[in-house]
Amino acid sequence: MQPISYDVLAIGNAIVDVIAHADDGFLASHGMTKGGMALIGEARAETLYAAMGPGLEMSGGSAGNTIAGVAALGGKGAFIGKVRDDALGDIYRHDLSALGVDFITPAVSAGAATARCLVLVTPDAERTMNTFLGACTGLEEADIDPALVASAGITYLEGYLFDLPPAKQAFRKAATLARGAGRKVALTMSDSFCVHRHRDEFLDLIDGHIDILFANEEEIRALYGTDDVDEAARRAAGHVELVTVTRGGAGALLIDAGGRVDVPASGAVTEVVDTTGAGDLYAAGVLYGLSRGLPLAECGRLGCAAAGEAIGHVGARPQADLRAFL
Amino acid sequence: MQPISYDVLAIGNAIVDVIAHADDGFLASHGMTKGGMALIGEARAETLYAAMGPGLEMSGGSAGNTIAGVAALGGKGAFIGKVRDDALGDIYRHDLSALGVDFITPAVSAGAATARCLVLVTPDAERTMNTFLGACTGLEEADIDPALVASAGITYLEGYLFDLPPAKQAFRKAATLARGAGRKVALTMSDSFCVHRHRDEFLDLIDGHIDILFANEEEIRALYGTDDVDEAARRAAGHVELVTVTRGGAGALLIDAGGRVDVPASGAVTEVVDTTGAGDLYAAGVLYGLSRGLPLAECGRLGCAAAGEAIGHVGARPQADLRAFL
Fold first, then answer.
1. For residue B78, what is the domain's CATH number?
2. Residues of A in contact with B96 (CB under 8 A)
3. In A, which residues are within 8 Å of B50 by CB distance?
4. pTM for the full predicted model
5. A281 found inside a domain
6. Complex-level ipTM
7. Exposed, middle or buried: residue B271 (CB in 10 Å: 0-12, 13-18, 19+)?
């Protein structure tokens, strides 16, 4: 088996976040479902952008945020995702490269612009997302390099990729290659609406193609059509090596062959400012811990700590030196 | 005299800030003068950007920040400044428009890209700026519309405009038009290095062309070549209707025909995170107060309060609802 060059290879939509404050009335008047992620076309993206307040731009994307967190913790990461050769694409590449992440996929020089996500943060710190996928729609099987996948200890995939058929094919190829190379495959469910859209395919995938499953309470409930989070988590644990469910202020649970661990939310959070990226950074902490062979409870603690840093400021990616923060 | 349509018309460099954390060693190894603003070319901009950490992008520019603050306080503002028709230019226009500011100048469709400022924030919350002026170099006399200037109660100009000869001509034209229309002209000195670069011209300008002068301690000292801030402020007061000097943690002083007022720094600041924009937002508070005919001490208090909001977060522009914050 070839040596491991990367602790984690993340594959996801490469999206620049445009973050603004808004009140609940703004969400209602524009027909948004609070807390969710809606896919929007270019025309609606322009309408919403024109209506929303002054923005703050920063690189985002679920798997992109996670790999940024892994790198900030000291792990070695790679990223596969698609941007255009435009200003936002340059920003996206810079922000990963600056953390030492190898952003593998070259920018495309034609077609839709780099993806952006209009993120509205309400006074309760909840975030509601509207994503124009743009260049991400070009992600396809050909972007998955077998040697790269084989060189990563864990290949981490976001469920959002299932919203685009070519990206879904890329997802399946990466998962198959990783397992074929004796590596681990991790999946985050991304969003409960995403789970509803692709429930049967997710269930099929989890049964034999995924080693590590990340979800929040809503997502795991949606997956098994039950209100009982514990039951849903137990069911998932029957199919994967490790399942972990984040529970907001209640922390997270993790189940592997050794049993169940419950980890409290970070005590370092003094004020919840913006929940964007909390789940992504939780995954970063857990993946980093797994890559270092740490005990399950310690992996969960790292996840909650990284998530705690993320919710203390506007924007998803770490602003503090995460290693010092921990 | 035509009616006043705008409380303040701001004229300045339209710049998107790219903000990253850095330590003092980074500044030293790249030959930066801490706390200053350096003009850089495209090649150095690329080198520095490649070397700096993950960024956070938001609209900036000194006068742009100020007019954003005026609008956030409830004033009616207009802005003249130059961007390209590119992604950063669109962001710049959106962020002012979203606050109700009329961004008058159309984007140019050729030439250099929209300006960006690489802002390094050190652990002591000081900011060090590296500005690639790009499209701003195209600002010229033709961009100054006499009717617009005449419709603004105060025309506010940033000293940075003096770094570009065509912009300097635009500056002089705007000041002349405003005074000719019976309006007030305000100038911010921008930066002590900028004062050193243009000292004689600034002295000449202040003598008969400026009504309201904004400076910090270093700038007013540089202008008069003295270490004594009080003496320098008194000298300036002999030439303008109102001079106000910001003093960091010591608040600000204001001198007009009625005498001198000293205002303490905002007591609402619990942690200084990033001083970027403190002076710009101080100016916003004072200008808003003047536009409402408030007493001098109240103008100063508004300025210190707005500055206090700005230094409590990363980035220059208001993140809180400034009216609620006050």
1. 3.40.1190.20
2. 54
3. 94, 97
4. 0.91
5. yes
6. 0.88
7. exposed
